[in-house]
Amino acid sequence: MADIVVYGGEAAGVAAALMAARRAPRGTGVALAFPERAPGGVITLGGLCGWERREWQRAGRRQDPQGGTFREWLEEVGPVYDPEAFAARLAALLAAAGVRVLAGHELEAVAGPAAAPRGRSRRGRSRTAGPLPAVSALRLRPLSPGPGSIPALLPEGAEGAPPAVTVPGDVFIDGSATGRLARLAGVGLSTGRADWDPDGRQMAASILVAVEDVDWSGLQQARDGQDRAVWGTSTEQSPDGPHRVFWGGAGIAANDAVLQAFAIAHPGFRVGAPRAWEEGRGVFWVSALLVHNVDGRRRAYDAGTERDCEPVPPLSRDVDSAYREARNLATSPDMLGALRRFPGMGKVRFAERDGEPRCAEVLLLRETVHATAPGPDRFAVRVEDLTGAGAGGADGIDARHRPRRIGLGFAWLENAGYTHGEVVPTTSAAMNPAQLPLDAILAPPVANLLVPGFAARIESRAWWALRTAPNQCVLGDAAGVAAAFSVREGLSVLKFGTPEVAAVQNWLSAEGAILEKW
Question: How many CB atoms lie within 10 A of CB 114?
Fold first, then answer.
């Protein structure tokens, strides 16, 4: 039994579970389930061991505009960190908070949505102000080993199938990168970029691989044909010591003949401009291999079941098939040869463990689905809210969100492309943090579901910025606090008016969230 049930071990899900456990009434149960072996998703198991930050400078003050759990984690592990140590730390934080963690459990079915009764919840209060659809429980099942290292979700009655776990609750949160809970709950969803391009493609994914023998001096001295630095480099100070970071090489990625041949030889993949974070001891996690045509909603173990959905675009790969192909390519001699085309990386080799190259355990997904609401105002946050955000809370396009703001969102409006060779129209730069509304994480008409993960009610181009982990923490914090308040008051999150939103804002501020621009 749990009052608040979170699905998804990404940054948004972990932040939501921790914040819900802190703020919910005494005796409230909080559960967190995810299919991976450890919490954190791409920021731990995916090798993305450096925060994708963008500081804001105004009035002589320069800092990240995201607070709450992100600020706590940043201060504890630093701007760059050891991903395995961070995964262990997240697990310890969840345990200390009393969160019931179901690692390695996949969402098999959602009970509901059905009409939520006008009767009483377990706490003696009406759960909704009317007969809105509501989720009542999640059925979860441990994943089993499958062929070719792809996990299996064995059906009930199959030989070796582990027993399912049914977790009922009052409030549910989808903090995943796949939007699986929102999709199975029947929330209206827009896939990928369907809000501005009917093909519905999702941004290219990536897979990270660990390398060593980077020539740091060579990186810093490398110049292109116009005598410009090839790389940006920095050394970040974390509690466990200095960690180096480098990024750049876009011209080489676009024009090098060997890299062009790589893309031809491996359809659906290409080598982009690398970005790398030093885990420690000279080992760098490199993000360079782009994986196109991945439908992040789909898993191999859903094929042929009612959980599956039509691929978008039609020939796209499910997450598991794409990961297996990407892992094999990322650890191949072809990939090593591609990385060696970049200055300072001419002698890199794969970092190994037990004689095998170290590769991310999960894909770095950048986009899957976006929740929509019935009616003309489908999305709560549009790209204009970011590009037109004001320097103060009362000016700019984002001022419309000020009464229901739950945090600030800020990052570069970057996308990794959608298909090889396509030129994606760009948008204006976002110069100021944007106020994000509570409505961005609501999933009408489902009365008791919050969506701070990839299924947030944020249009595709705005997601170019808000997909980053610091912003995901902001949304996750708000979902956890809103869920806790919903349980305490016995009121659907869809019914939150001015007094309820003000209470959520006060709770968030007390937990270190930043709601005001400075």
Answer: 11
Note the pLDDT tens digit of each residue in 33-76.
Answer: 999 999 999 999 999 999 999 999 998 899 999 999 999 999 99
Closest CA to 345 of 206, 258, 222, 207: 222
Separation of alpha carbons 330 and 336, rounded Å: 8
Count Cβ neighbours within 10 Å for each residue of 425-436 and write b for 16 or more, e otherwise.
eebeebebbbbb
Confidence of residue 1 (pLDDT cuts 50, 70, 90): low
Q: How far apart (Å, rounded) are the C-alpha atoms in residues 461 and 148?
A: 36
Cβ–Cβ under 8 Å, residues 325 and 195: no
What number of CA atoms fall less than 13 Å from residue 127's CA on the CB side? 26
Q: What is the DSSP string of 412-425?
A: ------SSTTPPPP
Whether 118 has a pLDDT exceeding 70, the answer reads no
Tell me the mean pLDDT in the region 342-369: 97
The amino acid at residue 133 is: P
- Three-point CA angle 452, 454, 456, nearest 5°: 50
pLDDT value at residue 113: 59
Residue 428 pLDDT grade (very low, low, confident, very high; cuts 50, 70, 90):
confident
**Coil, helix or strand at residue 273:** strand
Strand partners of residue 167: 138
> Three-state SS across 127-194?
CCCCCCEECCEEEEEECECCHHHCCECCCCCCCCCCCCEEEECCEEEECCCCCHHHHHCCCCEEECCC
Q: What is the value of pTM for the model shown?
A: 0.95
CA 359-360-362 angle, 5° bins: 145
* Helices assigned H by DSSP within 367-457: 383-387
